Amino acid sequence: MTERHPSPTLVPRTGKADGERLPPARLAYGAHTWKEIAHLLVNLPVSLIGFTYVMTVLFTGAWLTVTVIGFPLLAAGLMGARQLGKLERGRARRLLGVRIDEPSPLPWRRTGDHGFFAQLWMGLKDPVGWRTILYEFIRLPWGVFTFTLTLTSLFVLWPVLPFIARGLTNVDRAMVRGLLSPSDELERRIAELESDRGVVVDTAAADLRRIERDLHDGAQARLVNLAMGLGLAKEKLLEDPEYAQAMVAEAHGEVKLALQELRDLARGIHPAVLTDRGLDAALSSVASRCTVPVKVTADLDARPVAAIEGIAYFTVSELLQNVSKHSGARSASVDVWRADDRLLIQVWDDGRGGAHLDGGTGMRGLAERLDAVDGLFVIDSPPGGPTVVTAELPWRDRAPGRP
Q1: How far is the C-alpha of 308 from the C-alpha of 327, rounded, in Å?
Q2: What pTM did the predictor assign?
Q3: By three-state DSSP, how is residue 258 classified?
């Protein structure tokens, strides 16, 4: 048993608008300063392209709204503005160090289940497109000003140009953050939930297919054979009682096997010991079936909601299966504890190491399942071992009186 490793800090997926601190402006010309100067000099041609596009979209779309093609043309122009915004975010990221999340797609592009007029209306009221239009509209005078001042400073105000460039690009950074970032935290969260919903649906569908396959190939086939055997025994009951008795005995054995397969299947869906006694007992049961000696330590003063408890159980179960099959370990341990509003799981083994998320669908599936509930999945497995897998899940209290 090794001592518990520090749990990694969960980093929100939304992140900050600006990913890193800017170095202070100095008289010396560093790489960052030259990037800022390049950004200011490129402002004019880029803003000319953007302004021309915006005026074309607005005037053409507004003029043609009296016809049937006006509104679709305007909606298409707003979608094109989204692409301009994407290019500007990329330029700011490369030259100004501004890290901004991409806005979520339009709802019909995420799901594809809206009609033409619903798509048209969503495109026309798209806040991301309209804010990009505003951004490109006000950029032309600013682009002319920054280009002229920067170009002049290169020959006249060379000693203080780094400070001028920093001041001007700080205005650019504010513009990009204010007009080209996602509308708000809710918009980013919607995009994440759309992705997470797809993961949950795919996982549920895979589980249903597995259950159907196990029933068809296992218990169902055995019960069919059992029914045929009992029917044959019934026919032989009078003319050959001994043969019928042997067939009934064989059917009795088949019943036991079918019951065991059904119990195993039910345990794979949701084990009774988890429902009745909680994670500590359920994980001890899983550990007892592992081919490697496993020490389980659970420091929980309460039980989380059933969904979180089930994910924790199946995460440990999958990890211990990997320990049995692939690690070559001689010992392993499972630690489960609560830290504030997080449920933390750590599975350690002294095997050969080398485990990683790209090693197979099992690890990726675990990471996706935890990610779908705002969890975290981290593997530390250098070649030669040991392997430490840490999982974090949100702690949600179980309602009083619920099992």
Answers
A1: 27
A2: 0.45
A3: helix
Q: What's the confidence (pLDDT) of residue 15?
A: 37
Report the pLDDT averaged over residues 112-134: 78
**Paired tokens of 55:** 């005026």
Q: Give the domain 193-269 fold.
A: 1.20.5
157 CB contacts (<8 Å, ≥6 apart)?
164
Using a 10 angstrom Cβ sphere, with 0-12 exposed, 13-18 middle and 19 or more buried, the burial of residue 249 is exposed
Which position has the token pair 């100095």?
A: 26
Helices 116-124 and 70-96: angle between axes, nearest 10 degrees: 50
Neighbours of 283 (CB within 10 A): 25
332-339 and 294-299: which strand pairing? parallel
Domain residue spans of the chain: 31-180, 193-269, 272-394
- CATH code, 272-394: 3.30.565.10
Task: List pLDDT tens digits, range 150-206.
Answer: 999 888 888 888 889 999 999 999 999 888 887 655 555 555 555 545 555 555 555
What's the gap between Cα 279 and its chain centre? 25
Q: How far apart are CA 353 and CA 380, in angstroms?
A: 9
Q: CA angle 269-190-117, nearest 5°?
A: 115
Looking at every residue in the chain, the average pLDDT score rounds to 77
Structure tokens belonging to residue 184: 């708000």
Pick from 200, 189, 193: nearest CA to 103: 189
With beta carbons less than 8 A apart as the criterion, state whether 363 and 387 touch.
Answer: no
